[in-house]
Structures are given as C-alpha cells and as structure tokens.
Amino acid sequence: MSKEKQVALVTGGNRGIGYELVKQLALNGFRVILTSRDPETGHAAVQQLKESNLDVSVMVMDVDNQESIRQSAITVNERYGRLDVLINNAGVYLDENEKLLNLEPSILEGTMATNFFGAYHVIRSFISLMEKQGYGRIINVSSEYGAMSEMSYQGVGAYKLSKLALNGLTRLVAAEIKGDIKINAVDPGWVSSDMGGPSAPRTPKQAAESILWLATIGPEGPSGKFFRDGKQIPW
Ligand SMILES: NC(=O)c1ccc[n+]([C@@H]2O[C@H](COP(=O)([O-])OP(=O)(O)OC[C@H]3O[C@@H](n4cnc5c(N)ncnc54)[C@H](OP(=O)(O)O)[C@@H]3O)[C@@H](O)[C@H]2O)c1
After folding, report:
1. Is the CB of 44 under 6 A from ligand 1?
2. What residues form DSSP beta bridges with 202?
3. Record keywords: Zinc included (predicted)?
4. Which structural domains are found in the chain, ordered by start?
C-alpha cells in the first residue's frame, strides 16, 4: 500500500451511527467522505467535524437514486482516484409494530430500496475503484433482525427482509470479488439514534467503535461474515 492517506466513504453520514463512523475514521487517519442525501444537513455535519480539524468532506448521495450514486462514484474517482473503505450505513426503519401482510406495499418497497438496493447499487458503482488498486474493505451495517431465525417471528417484516437480503448480498459479493477486497456485515446493537430511540443502551460512539475494526483488517481477515462486537454471529 502507498503511504498516501486512505480514503473512506460512509453513506448516511450526517447523523446517528454514520456521523460517528465518519468522525472515528477521520480520528484514525482516514480522509473521509461524508455522504448525505440532504446537502444542508451534510454540510452542517462536516462543518462541525472540521472544527476539530478532521479531514472530512461532504458529497451529496441519495442511495435510493442510482444516478446520484453513479455521479458520486465519478466524483470520488476524479478527486481521490481511490477508495479504500466503503461503509453502507444509510438505512430506514419504517414498519415498527406492523405485520407484513397488513403493510402498505410501498413501505416494503421503500425499505428494500434504501436498505438493500441502496447498498447493492453503491457497491456496484464503487467496486471498480477498489479493484483498480486490488484493495478494499466494505462494511454493510446490518441488524440482528436480518438473521434467518428472526423470520420465524411476526413484526418488522419489511426491515427484517431488507437486512436478510443485505446479509445475503454480503455473502454473494464476498464469493465474487477477487484480490484483497473484504466485505462483511455487522450488527451495531441497539443504539440511541433517531432510529433506535432514546432508551437504547448503546451510544452511536460505542456502536461505531464496535464496527470499525472491520475497516482495517489485514489480508488474512474475514470476508462474507456477520459480526457483532467482534464476534461472528449466526446468519
Ligand atoms: N439504531 C439502532 O438501534 C440500529 C440497530 C441495528 C441496525 N441499525 C442500522 O444502523 C444504520 C444507521 O442507523 P442509525 O441508527 O444511525 O439511524 P438514523 O439515526 O435514523 O440515521 C439514518 C441515516 O440514514 C440516512 N438515509 C436514509 N435514507 C437514505 C437515503 N435514501 N440516502 C442516503 N441516506 C439515507 C439518513 O439520512 P437523513 O438524515 O437524510 O434521513 C441518516 O443519515 C442503519 O442501516 C440501521 O438499519 C441501527
């Protein structure tokens, strides 16, 4: 690897776990691209991080919009010419306390669009930057709700299916990619963000700390696996 700073990109970096991932990557010496679907909240988040002299820049990317993803990949190639770490963090949780068959189908479609297809299109658009240098670390922020065993219990069906598919994508991509490129899924635990609510026991900072070891694993490190707190968990 060259001595140039490594470049990392986080989707949904303007708040919650994504914001902490950006902050900690920058504190650990990465040049970090904070992506946000909303320009204003993205700029505000980067401004706040820059006050601590962190090497962070903002890019607008809506993971529901393939053209927005494609344009971001072109810009990253032009500006940095590389991508070392990609974190698919952007996510929605739209069906708490609802049964799958009673849902408006648009809720399932919207959840799949962001949590599954979003990550799929982001990986598809950015993988060539990693293949170019034969190196990359991809982390998919999943959930314990995405484990197959969770499908035996009713409720939260749209979210569960989206994370189950994301876990499957993790394994399929791991089986396809060549070179020193690793992809893993991780459950951050129950986290006190807008999504997790105020009663959650874990802070976004703790969640980010439990995820980021996967950004710096060596060539012998895992790929196509699902982790929580550094331990492999059942799919
Ligand atoms: N919190 C938990 O307890 C928990 C547990 C397990 C897994 N997770 C997972 O952890 C990840 C982060 O969750 P969080 O708790 O930090 O949630 P959060 O506070 O609700 O933040 C979600 C982030 O995703 C972004 N986002 C949503 N749709 C997007 C889109 N179409 N394009 C780009 N960005 C989009 C949001 O942007 P806007 O600000 O523009 O809406 C926001 O930045 C998610 O994948 C979630 O499923 C969370």
Report:
1. no
2. 191
3. no
4. 7-232 (3.40.50.720)
* 182 neighbors 136 (Cβ within 8 angstroms): yes
Question: What is the Å distance from ligand 1's center to 179 Cα?
Answer: 30
* First CA to last CA distance, the chain: 33
Instruction: State how far the Cα of 164 lies from the Cα of 68, in Å rounded to an integer.
Output: 25
Residue with the smallest CA separation from ligand 1 atom 24 is: 90
95 lines ligand 1 (CB under 6 A): no
Whether the CB-CB separation of 4 and 28 falls below 8 Å is answered with no
Structure pTM? 0.98
Give 14-60 pLDDT, tens digit per residue.
999 999 999 999 999 999 999 999 999 999 999 999 999 999 999 99
Does the CA dihedral 120-61-23-208 come out positive or negative?
A: negative
Ligand 1 midpoint to CA 90 (Å):
4
Q: In this structure, are residues 12 and 64 in contact, taking their beta carbons and an 8 Å threshold?
A: no
Is 10 in a helix, a strand, or coil? strand
What would the two tokens of residue 18 be? Answer: 């994504």
